[in-house]
Design brief:
By secondary structure, this protein is α/β, with parallel strands linked by helices. It has 26 helices and 18 strands.
Length: about 675
């Protein structure tokens, strides 16, 4: 199992690979239901993988367990093992270097070694050079260099003994502090999440159960590193999800909640968190921008669905019930940011309640939504134009402009004179439907066939204007055979499969081609789930981004492409009109009017205005953009557009540093 399957693959695919590699069979329905329930209850995939590894069925099968334990402990090298705190380091070292659990005597031996001041690097070297470890090559490429370095350390002359004693004291102090942190963690958990008088109430943050002893034992229990390292059952694992996440690394902050001079600052995100929808991507970006200003951060996924749990959320997840219990605790300053449509807004007494949503048209008339807006303490506006919209409803809630932070890869991007920044990743190979001949081809093959690629990422919602885009492309592609359109689709219905969505889109295109009496040329459609990083790589592989949406409240894909150095072709309305300069040359001619769009959720008023690109507007823009791509003048337009975009969006770094009050009330 590779890292991408472990982290990013859909749950069903992850379980299929885990069952096949660890148990040698396909997952049964009961097993799938069991593990899906664990995910919904807040457990992570490492917990599931560990539970499968500890099963009696897996114990009876011979295979190398070390790579799977490396995924469980989230380590990719021997140096990563050094970052693990306390006794978890010993468990992880045994698991990833020997493929088994430590036994009692072996665990006690290395625990005493660490207490005496021996470094963790020395422990890794001792285990790695043991006879048992040498039976198979190490899974970490840096083990050999670490062993060489530690052997050089062991052979230092005696005249450096004072330095060696000082280093030993440092190692001893470090391990002692890690043990103290392990002892304090249950106290901290109890301080934040008391059981409310119930002795059998589960903790808010789920803990990993005690692992069972491995069935096999070795006959040798000698502690000489040159012999086999003995085994020991796991008896003291730390909580599965730590309290605080900073800089991507979980750790205990050393902040004593009960004895603090100030209340602990807690940030909780509510909304769609673990999928790859626009709302979920936005929630993760807001979380990245805000979490370092708080002592603790959590999430509450109120739209969780097993088939959509394809994204990563880098904070512990709480249920709504546990969130309610958290809000009732004393000595906590809690800020709850709900990023969803207003029907999911909820005000928690005792917390600072903030709501944020994206809106695509000029009117908001849903009475339930308006009432929920009025209950919030603050409303954050991703677009400045939304202020007038909300004020027109009579809502008197405080409004603040807080645009969506850019992707982490592009926070330092400066595009000028043709320079651009993109994530360093291997090219992805996607199988797409080629509608011209009904076959499936890879992205690299499409790149070889066509000189220019245009990308559209969209859901199948009516307001996305896909039918108009297909019709316009069919008309324009008759004149530009060296261009291709790639359409990345996502379903509004979470139960709809990717293949069904692709088939439905193909039927629409073929029907339009028949009515227009043109041939289907150079259109490729796919609906497989991609991670945010893969979407950025896909954006980097094309020449331009295109959208025909009738109204856009966010447009992350379009503006990510702009920051990737790629021009975007878009209508002249809503977020594009606000965030791009008036002189932007790749605006589609747009007709603003009242159109009755299908709306199953009854969210859009029937009197709402939408912007529809005019006929043949795409053809004229393609003519211009191809000339600019060949001449390189598009870079000047992108630099001007990015400069305007940054002026119209929130400078999060400046906002955080301008006033200390931002960390508490999130206001300046």
């Amino acid at each position: 199992m590779d890292k991408s399957t472990f982290h990013d693959a859909p749950l069903n695919q992850f379980l299929a690979v885990a069952y096949n590699e660890l148990l040698g069979r396909a997952p049964d329905p009961n097993g799938q239901a069991h593990f899906r329930g664990l995910i919904e209850s807040g457990k992570n995939r490492g917990y599931i993988l560990e539970e499968i590894l500890r099963s009696s069925e897996a114990a009876s099968r011979p295979f190398d367990r070390r790579p799977y334990y490396a995924l469980v402990h989230n380590v990719e090298s021997a140096l990563d093992l050094l970052d693990l705190p306390g006794r978890e380091f010993i468990h992880a070292a045994y698991r990833t270097l020997l493929g088994r659990e430590p036994d009692v005597s072996g665990f006690s031996y290395y625990d005493k070694r660490l207490r005496s001041g021996i470094s963790k690097a020395s422990i890794i070297a001792e285990i790695a050079i043991s006879h048992e470890s040498r039976q198979s090559p190490p899974i970490f490429p840096d083990v050999t260099s670490l062993i060489t370095r530690e052997r050089a350390w062991w052979s230092l002359p005696r005249r450096l003994s004072s330095y060696l004693r000082f280093a030993s004291k440092i190692h001893k102090l470090q391990y002692s502090l890690e043990l103290v942190a392990d002892l304090l963690r249950p106290t901290i958990d109890a301080a934040i999440y008391p059981s409310s008088g119930s002795t059998d109430s589960p903790p808010l943050i789920p803990t990993r159960p005690l692992a069972e002893a491995h069935a096999a034992t070795t006959s040798s229990k000698v502690h000489d590193p040159s012999t086999a390292v003995p085994q020991h059952p796991v008896t003291n694992l730390k909580p599965e999800t730590p309290l605080c996440f900073r800089s991507g690394k979980p750790h205990i902050t050393g902040f004593n909640i009960s004895a603090s001079r100030r209340p602990a600052r807690v940030l909780v995100f509510r909304g769609d968190l673990t999928s790859n929808t626009g709302y979920a991507v936005a929630a993760r970006r807001y979380h990245d921008a805000l979490r370092n200003n708080f002592d603790f951060s959590f999430g509450s996924d109120i739209h969780a669905h097993p088939s959509r749990s394809t994204g990563r959320w880098d904070a512990p997840l709480l249920s709504e019930e546990r969130l309610g219990r958290l809000v009732r605790q004393r000595n906590l300053t809690i800020t709850i940011l709900t990023i969803s449509s207003p029907d999911a807004f909820k005000a928690f007494p005792g917390a600072r309640n903030i709501g944020l949503f994206f809106w695509e048209t000029d009117r908001l008339t849903n009475s339930t939504w308006i009432n929920n807006l009025r209950k919030m303490d603050e409303i954050w506006l991703p677009l400045r134009s939304m202020r007038k919209l909300i004020e027109a409803t009579g809502c008197r809630t405080k409004l603040f402009h807080r645009s969506c932070p850019p992707a982490a890869h592009y926070r330092q991007t400066h595009i000028a004179h043709g320079s651009r920044s993109a994530p360093k990743m291997n090219p992805i190979s996607l199988c797409l439907d080629a509608l011209s001949n009904g076959s499936r081809v890879t992205l690299s093959e499409i790149r070889r066939r066509h000189k220019y690629l245009f990308l559209c990422t969209s859901t199948d919602a009516p307001r996305k204007g896909l039918s108009v885009l297909y019709r316009e492309w069919l008309s324009a592609s008759q004149f530009y055979s060296n261009c291709a359109l790639i359409v990345k689709l996502s379903p509004m219905d979470v139960t709809q499969s990717a293949r069904d969505l692709e088939t439905s889109a193909a039927r629409t295109v073929l029907s339009l081609a028949a009515s227009e009496k043109v041939s289907v040329q150079n259109i490729y459609i796919f609906a497989d789930s991609l991670t945010e990083d893969e979407m950025l790589v896909l954006s980097d592989a094309v020449n331009a981004f295109i959208t025909f949406t009738y109204g856009e409240g966010l447009g992350l894909g379009a503006f990510d492409s702009l920051q990737c150095g790629k021009p975007i072709i878009c209508p002249r309305h809503t977020s594009f009109l606000e965030l791009l300069p008036e002189s932007y040359p790749y605006f589609l001619e747009t007709r603003i009017g009242h159109y009755g769009l299908p709306d199953p959720g009854n969210a859009y008023p029937i009197s709402a205005q939408w912007g529809v690109p005019t006929p043949d507007s795409l053809r004229s823009i393609i003519t211009k953009i191809l000339a600019d791509l060949d001449a390189g003048t598009y870079r000047e337009y992108i630099a001007e557009a990015l400069n305007h975009y940054r002026k119209r969006t929130t400078n999060w770094k400046k906002l955080r540093s301008r006033s200390p009050r931002f960390t508490g009330g999130l206001r300046c």
